[in-house]
Amino acid sequence: MPIIFDLHSLEVISISLTINNKSVTLISAYQSPSKIMYTNNYETLFSKSNNLILLDDLNYNHTKWGYISINSRGRKLQEFINSNLAVISAPSTPTYFPNDINRHPDILDIVLIKGISVNITQVVLPELDSDHNPVKIILSIATNAYVSPRKKLINGKPNWCTFSQLITDNLQIPNKINSMTTVDYVISHLIDIITMATLNCVESSQNRPTYSSIPK
């Protein structure tokens, strides 16, 4: 049975189903990167059901779900998740492959879970006909909600002198930060440089990726 929501800028389609004798609302949601994020959209969704699974293509960036950087939208969503005791699950491999060669493949498709314990298995399918790969999601009943494991950033013994030198050589912070756009760029650049330095300071690492500098 479909459920109708009164939302702003967030596109959703939903059904109600029964899992383990519980009524569960399953929602597929899309947030255009060109539209404003309204946190009350999620308050509305979470208020309509005690048991909810939200499948999202939100264009929100946060390292909590494997994105390489954090933007203001991702920060707001993470704060909402923390305050509403939701569980988040993300694939272990990128789902988004930008056409711009200066941008990195990343994870934009995530699952939010409220009030129900399920195992989440996410398989990214290599069937690219846009800048997103589809994700196959398998749900199974569990005692505790499951979050897909994240890969370790450091696999080996770090050389902290190398790490420090890489940060010094590559970090570029503008003299003036006078807009939220610049703030997001600076945060993204800082995370990129720390990630690059971490990957390249491991003594056994080879052929690690490098990252472009912050736009001026």
UniProtKB/TrEMBL annotation:
Gene Ontology MF, one: RNA-directed DNA polymerase activity
Cross-referenced InterPro entries: Endo/exonu/phosph_ase_sf, Endo/exonuclease/phosphatase
UniProt keyword terms in alphabetical order: Nucleotidyltransferase, RNA-directed DNA polymerase, Transferase
Domain of life: Eukaryota
Endonuclease/exonuclease/phosphatase domain sequence ranges: 25-135
PANTHER family registered for this protein in UniProt: DOMAIN-CONTAINING PROTEIN, PUTATIVE-RELATED, ENDONUCLEASE_EXONUCLEASE_PHOSPHATASE DOMAIN-CONTAINING PROTEIN
Listed name of the protein: RNA-directed DNA polymerase from mobile element jockey
Organism: Sipha flava
